[in-house]
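Dear colleagues,

As part of the handover before I leave the project, I'm documenting each prediction I ran so the next person doesn't have to rerun anything. This entry is a single chain, and its sequence is reproduced below.
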Amino acid sequence: MFKHIKQICFELILNTEQDFKFLFRQLFFSKKVEFSDYYEYFGKYC
């Protein structure tokens, strides 16, 4: 999973918030996540 973090971060920079949420769910297979969770996680790896 972690080997794709940089690619996902790059895509997140180029995408809208809606795509952001979609990519986040695809990565973590989460049923429901808060938008603040994105920043908390990706802030450590981007």
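Residues 1 and 28 are 9 Å apart (CA to CA). The radius of gyration is 10 Å.

All the best with the project,
I.
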